Amino acid sequence: MRIAITGGAGYIGSHTLLDILGDGHEALVIDNYANSSPEALARVKSLSNRTFEMSEQTITDQPSLSETFQQFKPEAVIHFAGLKAVGESEDIPLTYYEENIQGTISLLRAMDGCGCKNIIFSSSATVYGLPDYLPFDEAHPTAPINTYGRTKYFAEEIIHDWTKTDPAKSAVVLRYFNPVGAHKSGMIGEDPAGIPNNLVPFIAQVAIGRRDALSVFGNDYETKDGTGVRDYIHINDLASGHVAAVDYIAEHTGFEAINLGTGRGYSVLEVVAAFEKASGKPIPLRYEPRRKGDLANSYAECDKAKRLLGWHAQFGINEMCEDVWRWQSQNPHGYRDN
Ligand code: WQD
User: Fold this and answer.
1) Minimal CB count within 10 Å: which of 1, 91, 242, 260?
2) pLDDT tens-place string over residues 160-185
3) pTM of the full predicted structure?
């Protein structure tokens, strides 16, 4: 298939691009490099031994996006481009709505303009909000508790309404749990700008000596050891979930929301222990109060992905940490080392 990938130079985008190329598809990457690097694409090129098209542009510029699509004529779009920091979304909500909602509308219009009827959307388990029950299945009520989560939820609804305008349209929204890890080669990985918000990139920077200690946000939750429990999923499992979704939308129409997780939760302290083992480096800890808006527990029910996509996660927490450590130790400053 001819597949356009928005945000294809980013963390999840670049790993998915590599798998999409490996599966024999033709790709066009659309990225404005707001939180990504051209170096990631150069490395995907050398890892895949394949070429693909690249257009440096922002998806909110609808006329220019439409023109790009008229030329490339995508048969499907995988939509990653967007802003993703929960804390920042509370400070600049309008920017989040512009990029994540306006961007999605602009993209759907550009797709309509060239007759493209298939989309896979990068959504998030954040759409569920506080758990009524666990594990989160796709039927769980959606009531996000922050602006970022609401932008993902509204974008899902917009895409759902879009599919209803034509029985030939097909959309899969993938609700990611906590993506971590890096490609086995150590050549591509997560390269957060500034101080990492997320647990595993922060631990990796402590291990490599860029930060002195990990702040553990809360150790009085009702969990196995008092620290927050999450469903971490290896980035290569996440990428292969997208390849499976591409196969699915080629054969099915309508709208589906599907969780991508492992179904298993690990506490902060368990992740720290796995990372210490993988890296051989001690991770000094500093206990701090709970972080605003954090849940005690979050993990996925993964049956729907298995049933519809024939997909399930392969990698465990040890491989996630080993692969992050390979990437971090080969690229202590991420893509800026190049
Ligand atoms: C995991 C656990 C923290 C950092 C967020 C977004 C979600 C998705 C993934 C998408 C929690 C604890 C963390 C630290 C810590 N983003 N922690 N010290 O909050 O589950 O999910 O990222 O694009 O939408 O909400 O992930 O990695 O931030 O936190 O103790 O320095 O680690 O309290 O229990 P989270 P996280």
Assistant:
1) 91
2) 999 999 999 999 999 999 999 999 99
3) 0.98
